[in-house]
Amino acid sequence: MTQLSQAEAFARIRLLRSPRIGPVTFAQLLARYGTGEAAVEALSNLAMAGGGHHQLAREEAVRREIDAVKRHGARYLFHDQPDYPQALTECEGAPPIITYKGDLSLASKPVVAMVGARNASAAAVKIARDFAQALSAEGFVVVSGLARGIDGAAHEGAFPHTVGVIASGIEIAYPPQHADLQERIASEGLLIAEQPPGTEPRGSHFPSRNRIIAGLALGTLVVEAAVKSGSLITARLAGEYGREVMAIPGSPLDARSHGCNHLIREGAVLVQEPSDVVELLSTFEGSPRSTFREPTSRFEPVPEDFEEASPADITDLLTTAPVAVDELIRQSGGSAAAVQLALLELEIAGRLERHAGGRVSLSSAP
Questions:
Q1: What is the pTM of this model?
Q2: CA geometry: angle at 214 spanning 212 and 217, to 5°?
Q3: Which of 102, 158, 199, 289 would give a disulfide with 190, using CB separation of 3.0 to 4.6 Å?
Q4: Residue 320: CB atoms within 10 Å
Q5: Does the pLDDT value for residue 288 go beyond 70?
């Protein structure tokens, strides 16, 4: 799809901002109904079939959001538009809609993620800046999360060939001391936000931001990180997406290096020089779009002759403990498409929760 009508764009934004509609559910609804407008019309019936009800996002709230995006000089990008980063379409749960400012073409060039500790050592900050500068000179774009420490150094070193992914609305600078850097990236690099304007960063937003960072890149380099650092989440996601995971080793006496050393012990590529990264990713350089499979729908439309599997049947098989959807299909005796439809109805009704790894459970909410 190259161009969306205003009505379709509005419907998609409204759909995604509605309760219980995350990226996976959004993709399933569009795959089933074809358009956001049709999906919006179908929500009430889906919720009723699942034994509940559903409240759409208010139209006025969506209008205010669209006005705010324009006011801040940002643009929307939808997952099925040609400029949406090909690398990101390959990732489960990729954001259906993002807002951005700057040069979108940067996301289609060879990208490497650089992440690490906020309380990084002076040596690690210098390494991050030097690596980013060297990788930029080799034609790579550096993506990171605009946090203090390693992230900021990576952006500075690669500037202007850098992508900043933030956990807030497009106009909110976090941390505040990076407001100038964020504005420079928005003007001369590329700034991406998944959250709508006006959204302050929350703890739950950062894993989502990390999945975008990992998904945009051919590989993720962890410069310095403790074992419990959020950078290891980005590294884990990169591995799950089939991307390269790299780490710079550090002293066993410094807890800020234990995360990197752990990654190397678990199989991450040990990196000591920028040339190590260039050599590892050189296969992909210059043609990043060709290195990823074509995106495929994770929700097959229900055929006319599918074998029934009702929400009641599926509910009987579920508990609050997560179970794989494939296991539900085997135990229910219904077709995969019918089980997926029943799960969708239960989720829209607020009776189902989705978990990582394609697992689902009954909702724990009262």
A1: 0.83
A2: 105
A3: 102
A4: 9
A5: no
Please name the residue that has the structure tokens 């189902």.
Answer: 352
- In angstroms, rounded to a whole number, what is the distance separating the alpha carbons of residues 297 and 27? 8
CA–CA dist 150, 22 (Å, integer): 30
Q: With H, G, I as helix, E, B as strand and everything else as coil, classify residue 174.
A: coil
DSSP class of 22 = -
Tokens coding 12: 């998609």
Decide if 250 contacts 224 (C-beta within 8 A): yes
* Cβ neighbours of 105 (radius 10 Å): 10
Q: Are 41 and 69 in contact (CB under 8 A)?
A: no
**pLDDT above 90 (res 116):** yes
Q: Residue 180 CB: number of other CB atoms within 10 A? A: 9
Provide the 8-state DSSP code for 170. Answer: T
Contact indicator for 361, 323 with CB cutoff of 8 Å: yes
Mapping DSSP to helix (H, G, I), strand (E, B) and coil, where does residue 337 land?
Answer: helix
pLDDT, position 366:
58
- Full set of structural domains in the chain with CATH: 6-100 (no CATH), 101-285 (3.40.50.450), 311-362 (1.10.10.10)
In 25-86, which ranges are E strands? 75-78
Strand, coil or helix: what is 350? Answer: coil
Question: Could you tell me the two tokens for 363?
Answer: 């909702």
Instruction: Report the distance separating Cα 268 and Cα 271, nearest Å.
Output: 9
Given a cut of 90, is residue 360 above it in pLDDT?
no
Calculate the alpha carbon distances from 254 to 59, 149, 227, 258, 364 in Å. Answer: 52, 16, 11, 7, 41
Question: Is pLDDT of 364 > 90?
Answer: no
Amino acid (one-letter) located at 268 = A
